[in-house]
Each structure stands twice: as C-alpha cells, then as structure tokens.
Amino acid sequence: MLDFENLSEYREDNRLEAKLAKGGVPLSVWETYSAFANSNGGVILLGVKEKKDNSLEICGIENPEKLLKDFWDTINNRKKISRNLLREERVYTKVVDGKTILVVEVPRALREQRPVYVGENIFSGSFRRNWEGDYRLSKEEVSALFRDAGEVSQDRKVLLEMDDTVFCADSIKGYRQIFKITHDNHIWNKLSDSDFLCRVGAASFDENGKLHPTGAGLLMFGYEYEIVREYPNYFLDYQEHYDASLRWSDRVVSSSGEWSGNIFDFFFKISSKLEDGLKRPFKMEGILRIDDTSAHKAVREALVNCLVHGDYYGRQGTVIKKYSDKIVFSNPGLFRIPVFEAMTGGVSDPRNSVLLKLFSFLDLGERAGSGVPKIVDAMKETFGTKPSYKEKFTPDRTEMTFYLDENQGTTQKNYPENEETTQKNYPENEETAQETTRRILDLMEENSSITRDELAERIGLTSDGIKYHIKKLKEKNLLTREGGDKGGHWVVLKN
Question: Most-buried pick from 16, 80, 489, 495 (CB within 10 A)?
C-alpha cells in the first residue's frame, strides 16, 4: 500500500495518477483505468492534485458516497467501460490530514482480458500508460493484444498455403540427430521426416495427404525467405560489442543468405558464442571432466526463453547483444504473465508453446515455469547479480539483461504494491533511469541538434518517455534548450 501519511513525497508516474475530482468522477479517469489495466496496473487517487513542482497535494472530495456510487455505476456499464477488473476492496476512501480521498487500485489485466477499453470502439478507446501520461493504442498494438488473448498458441497454426519445400533438410537432419542422442530408444527415431515433423508439432497432413508446416515448424526449420512470407517482420540478430570504436565485433543475422536463417540453426550458431568467456571450473565426474556449469545452462535457457516468447508478427525482430560485462536479450512482445510471477516460477505461458516443446525435446527450455527462477539463481551463484527485466512499448518489446560483472548488477526497489496487481518493481528502477539519463546527455553532447524522435529511436524509448526524462533533466538544471524545436539546440549544463 501507499504511505498515505507521506503522500506529498510521491510523484505521478507510470504507476500512480492523481486527479482533483472537484466536479465528480473526471472523464479522464477511465482513460487512466484502461491505461493501467493494459500496462502494469497502478493506483488512481481522486481528491489529490499535482502541483507545479510535481508534488502531490491532498484536497479531498466533498461527497465521497456519491462519488463512489457514480464510479461503480460507470465501471459496470459495458457501454462506458469494456470490463470491470475491480473488487470492492480495491476501491475505498481514505482520510488523510482530515480530508477524504478515493483510492482506486487497478490491477494489470490478464492477457485474456485485454484490451480493456473506454466506450464501444476498441481502437479509439484502448489506452496504455507511458510514464506519467496515458496514450491511445495504435491498431498494431491492439492487434498484438488480440493475438495474445487467444487460447491457442500462435505457432500452432497450420499454414495451408505452404508445403514441405519451405523446410531446410539440413536443419531437420541436425535436429533429429540431437533428438536421437537425447532419446536413444524413442520410437519416433524410426519415422520418416514427414511423420516425425507431425509428431513433434512442426507439420500436419491435410485430407489429401499433403504436408503443411505449422507456424512453429516454419520458424524452427524453414528457410528465412519462406519464413518472412508468413512473418514479414521476422529477423534474428546476434551482435558482439567489445570495441567501442566498432559498430560490432561479430554479427550473425537471419537475412544474410549464407545459412538457413531459421531459429534452430540460429540457436546453435550463437549459443557457443554466448557461452564463450564464461568460467569453466575444473570439475570431474568419475573419469570425465564436466565443463557445463549452471551459468552456461542459464545462458542457454535465457536464449530459449527469448526465442519462444517472441511475437514474430511484431516489429524489430529478436536481438541479442553481448558485451564484455553483460548480455542483453530482446524480443518483440510483452510478458504474457506479470513479471513477479515469472520470477517466482510455477506459471508457464509461452507465446509459442510448440516452439518450446521442440526445444524441450532436446532437453532445452523449461516447460514447468521454472526457467526464469533457475536463470536468476544461476546468475546470483556465478556472478553475484540478478538479471533485470524491462518491458518497452511502441513497439512492444521485452528485454532481459544478464550482468556478467557484480559491479554492473542492479538491485531493484519494490514499489508499495498489492502483489495481486502485477510486477512489484517499476519498469525502470532508479539505476536504470540513471543509465537512461546518462545516455540522453551523451547523445546530446555528441549532437546538440538531435531530435526527441531520434533520441527515442537510439535509446529504445517512446517519444513520451524521452519527454519525461528531458523534463526531469531540466528540473535538475542539467539541461536547457536554446531556440525553438526547429533550429534550436540542446545545452548540457552538467554531466
């Protein structure tokens, strides 16, 4: 819960909104309700206003009983709000400094419940929270929420307009060789390639006996030029960044035309690169040396997670960047469950369940929801750090960072939050925000004429996110602007 006795110390942000509510329930409350529900949840305070210095002032509400009734009447009206996510204990009055305010705790909607929207038009009425403001979702973002709301995994779809010529025979051969090693006496080892692909969920026969790939089969074993017919934005990218003077030291991309470009081959092309440099302590099991540590397994698990949770209809592709002190895994699409549930384990909700099954047949990837906790434990044991998770919007992306140096790890602060809402931690903790600020100032020093949109693209935030950071920098007297938006330039005062 919020510390109501020290409410003035809070600021509006991506999890907190204050509204004066002098004339009753403000219409903008419902946009914020939709935004919180479609993002990571949050708290709305009615009877509280934001002052010019961004601090909060308790003003109170005159008729709390009527305000409560009006609130419930509206949220239960399907012509006004698409879905009521609130229980009575989440909407309550609180007396602070002798004044009554109304508190609304909005949980993150389950993926099956999204999008939550205002009015009767799902496209114009769907919102999401971004820093301290609400923005209307684009059609692309609404479509992504619809895809995730479905009960059937995206990659189970049988692609009837394609046949078995989309498959790379060498990829299937490589997969079957590993499958045989991990399942030496399995009856499927005697099947033809076509029957084997059907058994593992990579293909399906139609009524005429013609073989067609599933989405998972196409992604796992197809040629890149065939994959992009179904997934136009499909792109896999691995980069190594060891020299600041170079854009990258090594790179593997799915579109090079030098290899198949599918997920199976990408995994085995880069997994050894990711593991390179990880310590391999001398350990014997009988007369055999065991080189595979929990950290190596954690890196492979993280790579599998990144690949099976990606929204391959989404934008910007899957990108893995390795630095001397960290590895960043980034894939299109948001978490399908609250982050704190993924961290504690026990819940598994992969975006591409067949892809996960294909990896699990090779003893790669956890299907019981224990993958992320194992990753966290292994990184703490080996490096003394915990990986950080971050969701980005417009376009939707999930980013996980492995810190390979204990001095680089982050300790996230828990926000006062009911555990049933969603992730306890802010999407940007204090240290992450400081890193974002530093990058903004560095880019402005390199190019004083850089635009907000260019900053957003370089850093990976939305334009509203950049505006938020610029506002905070100006308030701290670290930044000023000389001239207008056109023809003006930034002046970094202190860095």
Answer: 16
Is residue 227 helix, strand or coil?
helix
Distance CA(486)–CA(468), nearest Å, equals 20
Beta strand segments in 87-177, E:
91-96, 99-106, 127-130, 133-136
32 exposure class (CB count in 10 Å sphere: 0-12, 13-18, 19+): buried
pLDDT, tens digit (0-9, with 9 covering 90-100), for 318-364: 999 999 889 999 999 988 776 666 666 556 678 899 999 999 999 98
Q: Is the pTM of this model over 0.85?
A: no
Report CA-CA distances (Å) from 77 to 24, 33, 34, 88, 445: 17, 14, 14, 16, 52
CB atoms within 10 A of CB 373: 15
The Cα–Cα gap between 445 and 490 comes to: 8
Which two tokens mark 163? 């046949």
Please state the φ and ψ torsions of residue 329, each to the nearest 5 degrees: -105, 125
Longest dimension (CA), the chain: 80
Q: How many CB atoms lie within 10 A of CB 459?
A: 17
- The tokens for 130 are 């971004």
